[in-house]
């Protein structure tokens, strides 16, 4: 374990530069807090670097995390310095620096998947990732114009869901549509059938659209299945996108007998 006390230390300067860079432009991700660090260790193994506040070294959950990391990867800093590095106002005293996953697009998409089209709110995005993971989805595509999946708010809302799915960002319709070997199912209020009328396909790519504008017209046109969720439209115009996704994904799961 390396102890650092100066904010002029080269490693600390690099961490501060990373923190100040917009999430979309980072080649490394910051995982702030006990739960995210635990989830990364469980699913990806060692981080590039672990930073811990000196005052939290004896805290049991943090000590357990550090025990799983090679000592050469751990930086211990004063609490005040840690506060300057953390992206969370009420930090928990530990953060990881890890390589940002950039998986290659599959040649063919033949599995159940989710396509998030220009989702703007990072909290919604993180909740959608967490919901999809809970419903058994293993792959998500994020259209260009969607918030960064690796922003602090999206990571916190995802609660570790990011690490059990494969995330493809900056997706363009012309790149992904030709690769689909399963139906495209879009949620919309226009020319759509009820979610509860008839069987849903066992495998499809669900499209959930922008909070204000909905699904891109080009994706709607390509969709073989257009789904609406019955609700009191005279009282509420539309549902939150994460709520809509949860209803669709878990209705599909119910219909096809998934357990767990």
TrEMBL record:
* Top-level taxon in the UniProt lineage: Bacteria
Q: Which InterPro entries match?
A: Alpha/beta_knot_MTases (IPR029028), MRM3-like_sub_bind (IPR053888), Ribosomal_eL30-like_sf (IPR029064), rRNA_Methyltransferase (IPR051259), SpoU_MeTrfase (IPR001537), SpoU_subst-bd (IPR013123), tRNA_m1G_MTases_N (IPR029026)
A single GO molecular-function term is:
RNA binding
Keyword Metal-binding among UniProt keywords: no
GO terms for CC? Answer: cytoplasm
Annotated RNA 2-O ribose methyltransferase substrate binding domain ranges read 30-104
Task: Write out the entry's keywords from A to Z.
Answer: Methyltransferase, Transferase
Mind telling me which residue stretches traverse the membrane in this protein? none
UniProt cross-references to Pfam families, sorted A to Z: MRM3-like_sub_bind, SpoU_methylase
Give GO BP annotations, semicolon-separated.
methylation; RNA processing
Q: State the similarity comment.
A: Belongs to the class IV-like SAM-binding methyltransferase superfamily. RNA methyltransferase TrmH family.
Supply the name of the protein.
RNA methyltransferase
Give the originating organism: Corticimicrobacter populi
